[in-house]
Amino acid sequence: MGFSGFHGNAEVVHRLREMLARDRFPHAVIVAGPQGAGKYTLALMLARTMNCLTPRETDDLPDYCGVCENCRKIEEAADLEARCAEAVEAREGLRETDKRETRIFVQPHPDVLIIPPDPPQMMIKVDQVRHVNETIRYKPAEAKRRVFIFSDAAFMKEAANALLKVLEEPPEFATIFLLARNPGELLPTIRSRCVSFTLSALPLDQIDAYLAKHRPEWNARQRQLAARLSGGGIGRARSLDLEQYVASRKDALALLTTAIRAGEHSDLFRTTETYRGGGEGKEKTDQLLSAIYGLLKDLMALTSGAPELVRNTDITAELKSLSAGVDFSWIAAASQQLGQVQSGMRRNVLRPLSLDAFALSLER
Ligand SMILES: [Zn+2]
Predict the structure, then answer these.
(1) What pTM did the predictor assign?
(2) Rounded to whole angstroms, how far apart are CA atoms 74 and 42?
């Protein structure tokens, strides 16, 4: 709990917390760094520290409790991908006219707003920034500071211009975080109005060393797999249920193999039969779909000549042989189909049948 749960980039974290301690935290902050470096995790930790109802100190610097009302609410946004998927799903259910006018936001707490890229373009749109501009001047309702987190630096042109206006004179009680894999994407005029911090991804060997200590039951091969799957995020690596993942991946491989090789179907049906609809089957199916997605990404890496990006390193040979049977357009079609199965699941219409249909529709 608290900043002790953040690994790597100790110096940057220290500087940010020092600014909090001196009450000199900037109103606009760019947190730059590669995927998995912890940009979002860190921003949420800072948001909790700013608004914790029973703040504490660790290492003589401000920290958050993690259990008060504000901390718990903000924590709900920790799984950003899941929260965004829910927001997108809710929008899908609206009438056509409302759908067009509804933008995606994640708001775990009345004073904390996360602005993610809006699908399908996956860019931050002008209406999202306008909403920030219209509401940023309201004083915090339940917290001390209002926090706005733009989770990506991909702004549409008009949105970037609107952001400039927001950054011109943010109110005293507001903090804006801009998270950027590549800050060069941001207008120079935006960058010049922000204070920038850069996080570096944790190297694989550092995650490996950490796992050797905290997951002593894993062997070197398992540690390497967990480190790769986590994308440099140490918290994710540590909490991974590897056994569960490998079981889901085995089924995912069976599905994809049937689709690619278009052979015997009895294997496929034996596998999908074990996936039930309803609540109990949902988690298992979620894990299966996410494993399929990961395998498709690896196949994409292999077909585009970037084997170093493969994450399921322990089954590279098997993936290589599968990748010989597919091309870019097949993988793209498979990803799209998978998206449809996933959205069907969120609407609760998944049955083992849709898994069969998924695999059969992709047969070559
Ligand atoms: Zn708290």
Answers:
(1) 0.70
(2) 12
